[in-house]
Amino acid sequence: ACAISGLWNCVTINPLNIAAGVWMMLNAFVLFLCEAPFCCQFIEFANAVAARADRLRAWQKAAFYCGMAVFPVILSLTLTTLLGNAIAFATGVLYGMSALGKKGDAISYARIHQQQKQMDEEKLTGSLEGQA
Question: What is the CA 130 to chain-centroid distance, rounded?
Answer without folding.
Answer: 52
